[in-house]
Amino acid sequence: MRVLALVPGGISDQLQFFPTLATIKETYPNASIAIVVEPNAKSAYRVSKAVSEVIPFDYQAQNSPADWANLLGIIREREFELALCASNRWEEGVLLWLSGIPARVGYSSSSTPWIYTSTVTVDKKQSLSSQYQALLQGLALPSHPSSIALNVPEGDIAWADEQRNALGLAGGGYVVMYPGLTNQAKNYPADSWMTIIDDFQEKQPQLAVVLLQTADSQEAVVSIGRQRSTLKTVTATNLGQVAAILAGADLVLSPDGYVSQIAMALQVFTLVLQTATSDALPAAAGKESRALGIRSTTDALSDLSPGDVLQKVWGG
Prior knowledge:
This protein is α/β, with parallel strands linked by helices. It is built from eleven helices and twelve strands.
C-alpha cells in the first residue's frame, strides 16, 4: 500500500505524528509512506523508520498555482492509494481531490469536508497527537494513545560518543539544559538559566552541566556561555545527534517543545518548563512517566521562578 500524509507544522508537530505512523506500519507492514512537510521540519524524519519519502512543501508561503501544480504532479506520479490530511484548509483538500487518490481521510472541521471519502471528528482540546491518531478512525484502525518511538542512526550515536569523550563525560553523569528557541518573547530568560546552573554546580559538582546548542538555540546558548565560560557545550546539527546526546543524560531540562519530546520518548528523566496554557504532558504508554511539567502561572515562561524549578529538581 502506498500512503501519503499531509502534515503542516514544525518539528514538534511531526514528532507527534509518529504514533500515527507506527500504527499504520503495524497494520500494513509493507506500506510505503510518504509525507509532505514544511522544509524546516523535514529533519524530524531522520529519527523515523516508518517514512519512505519526505516531500518538502512550504504550506505557509504564498504559493503560486505553479507551486501547487508541481506538488500535484509529484503526488500523481507516486500513485498513492490512501491519503491522510492533518490540515483543515481547503487548499490541501482540493489538492488531494485533484490527485485522484481513491481513499482520502480528513477532519470533519475541514473547509471542504465533502472532498474527502471519509472524515473524522476531533476534540480540539485533545493533544495534537490524539488529533492526528483520530484520522485512523477513518480507516477503522485503533486510535489509542501511544508513545513516540525513535530510531537514532548509528552514525549519530557514534558522534555522541565522540562528543562525550571530548568533553570528559565518558563514564560520568551529566545534565543537559536546552534554553529554547532564540529570540522568542516567551522564552525562559538567560538570568534564570544561570541561577539554575549555579545551583546545580554548587549542589552536584560531580554532575556536569551541558548546554545543548542547535541552529535555533545558538544565540541563547552563546549568551549564557559568555557569562559562564566553564560550561560544556554540545552543538548538534541534526535531530539524530540531539537524540543521541539526550539518551546518555541523567536529566534534561527544556522548555516544552521538540527537545523535551525527544527526551521523554527516550525515557530520560525530563523537567519540562511550561506556560499556564501548555498542553498536559503525554502519559508514557504502559510505562511509568519519567517527565515532570513545571508550569508558570501565566502564559510567559519568564514568570516561572528559578526557585520553583529548583524545588522540583531537588524535591522531586
